[in-house]
Amino acid sequence: MSNQNNPVIVRFQNVSLAFNEGKKIILDDVDFSIRERTKISLMGQNGAGKSTIFKMLIGEQQPDAGRVLINQDCRIAIARQVIPRDWLWLTVREYFSRAFSEKDFALDKKIGKVLDQVNLTTDLDRVLKEHSGWQQARLLLAFALIQEPDILLLDEPTNNLDRQGIGDLIAFLMTYEKTVIVISHDADFLNMFTDGVLYLNVQRKKVEQYRGDYYDVLDQIQRQIEKEEMQNARMEKQIRDAKEKINYFSNKWGKMRKIASKMRDEIAEAEENLVDVRKDDKTIRPFEIPFENFVWPIVTINTISLLLNGTPREKHLGLELRKKHKVMLHGPNGIGKSTLLKRLVNAHDADAMIHEGVRVGYYSQDFSALDLDMVVWDALHEMSNEVTDQEVYKIASWFLLQGDVLKNPIYVMSEWQKALLCYARFVIQKPHLLILDEPTNHVNFRHLPIIAQAINAYEGAVIVVCHDEWFVRALQGFEHIDVMKI
């Protein structure tokens, strides 16, 4: 990594870990180190073990073999993806008190200071659940920072943040003088400050260490794949040629047979030189969200309530959506876009109304549209009375939801699995209207082109709020509405 003169602060030494009684290997004899004051991206496909490495660093998970060595007296704090469910009814003050093992009589002062760092103003007696997604994202970062860590772990920190919020976070990280390790699906964000990458190779169960910024590392990996493919192509040609000669010489006498025997040895050597070519991270398969024809108006929005400089204001929108009409709402965090979407889903009134008979597919940024206590299988099956068990299995597999995952309640799923579950439900539901509130949250960037393609091909009505600039550019045929200019 960069900063090679800095001392090593973390070392994984011959670390191995497996789950399910050793059947699912996560890490196999892994070695890597991280130096002080470096900014490291932790990269790898969903399920490769990124969150497991974070758990090892904070002591929530122990390796089966090997050692995780961390400098003595080094403080580590993590900004998680989401606030735990059973903490959502805490006040802001109660939340931050959980960061300390003993009562801190200067807690309010510390909270005020750290909220300034993350550019958030809120009442300390306000309940966490009452905060919007972007506010919760900043609270999660503040919770880690108030612990004054030597190593800051960030798990998908850009979720729910708009361009300004991501800019604030990048500026903070570039000037932060401690060690930072980040998991993120946002490639552009990672490239802004990364010194190097730890890549979890799910195929080999190893952690590979690279120097350079994020896109440099992607190029290095692609060159390595090409090199391995070329090597295998040479070896395979050598094997084919040798086998053809063996077939010829084996039918001859004397020295010719000895040549055939020698060529068998060459084949064995060439086969040993074949390498397991790195495979691209597994992605969801291309899918279609069916639309059963609906010729009448699908949704009407006459007015929109905005929060401008802390003051609620009603603005005339006059929007009526029919099939193939797709709208993207733009505007800064905190202005009321997500509130409008929730209002549409939960209410039917003259100002914002989904018409009778319309099936709505709703992707909520906090997954509030999902019953977290429901079993995954039931959450898929409930979307249609006509879907068969075989179809549910097939569609779930498209979205990498297989095996025991289908038997578990949703609340034990990882965030990326909850995200993909939402899209699997849309396929079964066949909605007339898609309401997508930050539809890239928690989704691996390798899945995003496939999801964008499905939304582009969808023939129903769509309303989207999204701050992922790549994804916004990938969506086609949308009417863009800046709510600040209404």
Describe this structure in words.
The chain is of the alpha/beta class and 486 residues long. It is built from 14 helices and 17 strands. It has helices at 50-57, 92-97, 107-117, 133-145, 163-175, 187-191, 214-249, 255-272, 337-346, 376-381, 389-398, 415-429, 448-457, 469-474, and strands at 8-19, 24-35, 39-43, 65-70, 76-79, 151-155, 179-183, 196-201, 206-211, 299-308, 311-321, 326-330, 352-354, 360-363, 433-437, 461-465, 478-482. Strands 5-6-7-3-8-9 form a 6-stranded mixed β-sheet, sandwiched between helices. Strands 14-15-16-12-17 form a 5-stranded parallel β-sheet. The longest helix has 36 residues, at 214-249.
Adjacency order of strands in the biggest sheet: 5-6-7-3-8-9
Radius of gyration: 26 Å
What is the terminal separation in angstroms? 48 Å
Unreliable spans are none
Estimate the global geometry from the Cα principal axes.
globular
